[in-house]
Amino acid sequence: MRKFLTAALAAVMSVVMAVPAFAGWQQDPEGWRYYKTKDTYLTSQYTEDGFWVDVNGIWDGNASIGDKQEDGSFATYEDPLAIYPILGTRIFKATNAVMSEDKKVYTVTADIYDTAFMTNDEIKEIKKGDTVEIPGLNLVCTAVNKATRGVIITSSSKNPEKKNNSQNSDKGYRVRLQDAEGNQYILSSSRLRKTSEDSSTTETILRPVASGVTIIVPTWRDSSRVNGTSHYSTTKTLMEKGMFFEATLKNGEAQSVTDVTYNYDTTNAPVYDEQAAHGHLYNINEY
């Protein structure tokens, strides 16, 4: 859930940062801060949009408690699509988009996908030879090896004073799977990758969650860039081309829309298969 909230806030930030650089959310190497002026940011309090920042001004990673009201209270609101559980990051794909007569919003019919298929604890229990059913894909695989924990060697993990702090070095568990046709997959709590045995080719697969949901999307231009590419798409392109996007919702209306890497060929995968819910539907050369 935290992963989803992190991605959701990043989507919010990408839009808020369209305002003058001295106001609102800004990111630096330490995290997200909420600036009131060019040189001052909030500390140890809730921001206007309901996120908590600590004594150093860094967002704590938790969800918003709502929008601040005139009396100082915060009006909470529910995510209308919370009935569809998400393990990783919620991804939308527009299947139909109709612009209003005043050209201010799209009424969008969309499918929902998840970047994750299983929790870290579920993956941890997988042993070599186990039969594993991949949720949402009607795919049955055999575990090629026992689930192992990935670790990032960072400067903090090398520091003797922080050697017992595994929070920054533990990447969670992952396991290699193989289906009846010999295709191989790497499953972690963050994603599922279809890969060749020597890992020379790879492609990311999304988990189908729901189809035919309706959301309202403002027609403003989304200019946030996509990690791993130098490209971005406008809201018009994302909606009318039926592309993948992230969005934070309030009462069924998108408060932010963000382009995602699943619209681009950011891996060495040669396959583009919409029916199998593979993420990379559009070749980057088309942009």
Could you provide a short overview of the structure?
This protein has 287 residues and is mainly beta. It has helices at residues 2-16, 120-124, 155-158, 235-240; strands at 24-28, 31-35, 45-46, 52-53, 67-68, 74-75, 90-99, 105-114, 131-134, 139-143, 148-151, 170-179, 184-188, 192-195, 202-205, 207-218, 244-250, 253-259.
β-strand amount: 25-35%
Mean pLDDT: 76
Terminal CA distance? 33 Å
- What series of H and E elements makes up the topology? HEEEEEEEEHEEEHEEEEEHEE
Number of helices: 4
What integer value in Å does the Rg equal? 20 Å
The helix/strand class is: mainly beta
Biggest sheet record:
7 strands, antiparallel
State the helical fraction.
Answer: 10-25%
Name the overall outline.
Answer: globular
Low-confidence stretches: 1-8, 14-21, 152-169, 268-287
Q: Based on DSSP secondary structure assignment, what is the total number of beta strands?
A: 18
Overall number of structural domains: 3
Describe this structure in words.
- By secondary structure, this protein is mostly beta strands.
- 28% of the residues are buried.
- The protein folds into 3 domains: 2-75, Ribbon (left handed beta-beta-3-solenoid); 90-115 and 207-286, no CATH class; 120-189, no CATH class.
- The strands form 5 sheets. Strands 9, 10, 11, 12, 13, 14 and 15 form a 7-stranded antiparallel beta sheet that branches. The protein has a 5-stranded antiparallel beta sheet with strand order 16-8-7-17-18. A two-stranded antiparallel sheet has the order 1-2.
- The model is unreliable at 1-8, 14-21, 152-169 and 268-287 (pLDDT under 50).
- The chain has helices at 2-16, 120-124, 155-158, 235-240, and strands spanning 24-28, 31-35, 45-46, 52-53, 67-68, 74-75, 90-99, 105-114, 131-134, 139-143, 148-151, 170-179, 184-188, 192-195, 202-205, 207-218, 244-250, 253-259.
- The longest helix has 15 residues, at 2-16.
- It is globular, with a radius of gyration of 20 Å.
- β12 (170-179) and β13 form a beta hairpin.
